[in-house]
Amino acid sequence: MDLIPDEVDTAIIATPASTVVEIMESCARKGVKAAIVVSSGFSEEGNKRLEQEIVKIAKRAGIRVIGPNTTGVLNTANNFITTFVPIENLRRGNVALVAQTGMFLGAMLRSIASSQHFGVSKVVGLGNKCDVDDWEALEYLAQDPETALIGMYIEGIKDGRGFLEVSQRVTKEKPVLILKSGITEVGSKVVLSHTGSLSGKDEVFDAACKQAGIIRVRSLEELIDLTKAFAFQPLPRGNRVAVVSFTGAGGVIATDACAENGLAVARISRETEKRLRRVTPKWHRILNPVDLWPAVEASGTIEACNTAIKAIVEDEGVDEVIVILAVFKGMVLPCDLDILKEKRHLDKPLLFCIIGDKDYAELMTGVLERRGFPVYPYITRAVKASAAMHRYSAQRKRLCLLF
Amino acid sequence: MDLIPDEVDTAIIATPASTVVEIMESCARKGVKAAIVVSSGFSEEGNKRLEQEIVKIAKRAGIRVIGPNTTGVLNTANNFITTFVPIENLRRGNVALVAQTGMFLGAMLRSIASSQHFGVSKVVGLGNKCDVDDWEALEYLAQDPETALIGMYIEGIKDGRGFLEVSQRVTKEKPVLILKSGITEVGSKVVLSHTGSLSGKDEVFDAACKQAGIIRVRSLEELIDLTKAFAFQPLPRGNRVAVVSFTGAGGVIATDACAENGLAVARISRETEKRLRRVTPKWHRILNPVDLWPAVEASGTIEACNTAIKAIVEDEGVDEVIVILAVFKGMVLPCDLDILKEKRHLDKPLLFCIIGDKDYAELMTGVLERRGFPVYPYITRAVKASAAMHRYSAQRKRLCLLF
Hints:
Rossmann fold, 6-stranded parallel sheet, 16 strands
C-alpha cells in the first residue's frame, strides 16, 4: 500500500486472515476511506479478537469496513465489482440485494443472472458486519435512484433500533423483502459459526418486521418470486383478483390459494361477460375463475387469450389478474398478445403461471418476463406473489397515514 | 358400435354430450365391459340428469364407467392410452397418478415427461366420478406390482367411508400423496362448476388423511417434490439429518428448515470427523452442517465431495443426508462421485439441492436424478421432502402396529 503513488479510495483485502491487520494499518497510513475485507477466519471461526483489531484501526483512521468474510459489493451502473464469484450477464435493473454471506450470495447472483429476467442495481455482501451494518446499507439504497426495491438475506441484526428506525422510513417508499435465517434454536447456533452473529429471538424480529412494514419471506424461492413481481409490476389498488385459466383445476387451486392468502375473487362485470361471450361457446358458463379452454377450442388460442385477458384487465372491479396457461408441444403459443404490446397502459398487476412442456413453458416465460410480466411455474406461487403485492400496498397506505 | 363384428372390451367415448346416452345404449347391447367418457357437458355444467342417464344404463348393463369429463387412463406397461393430450416421452416407472381433472392432468403429465426423471406406471383421470370412484382406483393400484407410490389430485370425495377404509390399508404398503383443492368456501364453489363435486369440510378431510396415514400436500410443487423423493430413495430409519453444504448460509437455512419440520441435526461421529479432516484445512471447524467450501478449496471439488459425502452417508448416527451444491460456470462438476456408482448399497435417503448457474445446475440435476438421487433447486424444498419421508416412515411403523 505504501508503494502506491496515487490516492486510494477503497482497499479490497483478500489475503489470509493473519495478514489483514498489517494491511489495515497501511491503509490507515495511506488515508484510505473504505475497505472491503473478503478474507475469512475471523469471528465466524471464533477469532473475535482479530476482528476487533481491524475495527479499532478502522475507527481510529476513519475507514469504513465492509466484511470481513464477504464477497463485497457490486454496482451494475459503473461495473464496480469486488466479488470473486464470476457475475457476468447480470442484468442492470431496479433490484438491490443485501446479504450477510459470501458464497451463498455468489450462488444466488449466478442463479439470478442465468435464470431470471429482472435486473439488479446494487449488491452488498455484508459478511460479519464488523463495521458497516445492514441498516446503513438500507439507508444508502433508500436514496439510490437506481433502486426500486430491496431484497435482503440476514443471519443476525446487530443494531435492532437502528434497523427498525431506518426500515420504517424506507418501506414507505420502497418494498423491503427479508429472508432471515437462524430463526430456530439450532439454526441460530449454526449462524454463530457462519457469520459470528447472534441471531436473536424470532418473535422479536417478526414483530419488528410487522411494525416496520417489512415483507418477511420464508425461503429463497419466495424471495425471488416476490422480487420479480415487485420489480416488474405496479401495485394493486385492492384485493379483488380475477383468474383466467386454461384448466378448470387451475381455477380451483388458484381460488383456494386466494382465499388462504387474503385475496378476494372479483365479481366480473356484465360488460366483461359480454366481451368474453364473443369467444366462448354458448353452453359454457362464464364465471371468475374464467375457464378459458372452451374459448380456446372455439376461437383459437390467440383470439381467446387476446379477448379474455384484455376484457378482464379492463374490468374496473378487478385489482389484480392471474393468467394460467397450459402449453403443449405443437400448440400455438400466445406470444404476440395485444396486452403485451400495451404494457405501459396497464395500471394493475398482471401475473402468469405456465404449466406443461418444459421447453415451451420456458420459451413463453422468456417472452413474457422480457416484457415485464412475472411468470411462475406453479399456481400457488403466482397467487402468493399477488397477495404480497396487495399486503404491501395496503400496509404502505396505512404507514403513510401513521407517520 | 352395432356394426363392429368382434367383441369390444372398452369403449372410449369422446363425442358431444348429447350423443353419449345413445352410444352407451349401443355399448350395453354389444356387451361392452368398460367405458371411458371423455366428453364434458354433464354435472360440471349443471346437466346432472344427463349424467344419471349414463349411470342408469351402465348399472343395468354391468358397464364400469370412468368419467365423464376426463382424459381417461394410461398404462406405460402396455402403452394403452386414451388421453387427447400428447404424452410421448413419459418414462415408465413406479409412480401412479390419479386426478379428478382432464386438461390439468394433461398439463401435469407433459410437465413431468419433459422436466422430471421419475417414471410413471399408471395414470387415471377420474373426471366427474359418476361410477368408478377414487377408492376403486386406489384399490387397483395397491395391488399393481408396477406401482410403488400413488399421487392424487382430488376435488371432492364421494364415498368417504370407502376412501378411508381402502387408503388405511394401502398406506401400510405404499405412500399415498394427496393434493386436494376446493378446501376453502369459495374454492369449493368453483369445484362444483369444474367436476360437479361436493368438496366437503376441509377439517374432516384432514382428520381422515391423518387417520389413514395419507400424506397431504398443499401444492402441485410439493406433490412433485415429495413424489420424486419417494420414487427414488429408501425410507429413513429415523429423523437425524446430516447436511453437507458448499455455502455456510445453506447450512443455516437447512438447519432452520429441519427444526421447523421435525428433523434433528445429527451429531457426527469421531470417525467421520477424522475422515473429513483428511480433505479439510486444519483451521476449519468440522460440524454438522458441514461447510464443505474450505475442503473444496483445499482438496478440489471431486476429492472433497467424494470423501465428505461418503463419510457422512456411512455414519451410523445419520438417518438422512442432504447435500447442497453451488455450481458456477467454469467449475468442475462432481459428476462422477463414488457414491453415485454405489447407489445400490445406500440404505438411507440422499437428497441434493443445487443452486447457481442454470445450465450447470440442470446438467448436474440430470446426472444425479438419472442415477436416482432427487435434486431440488431450493434448500427448504429438499428439507421438506426429507421430512415427509421421515414422517411417513414413522407413521407406517405405528400403523402396522395398530391394524
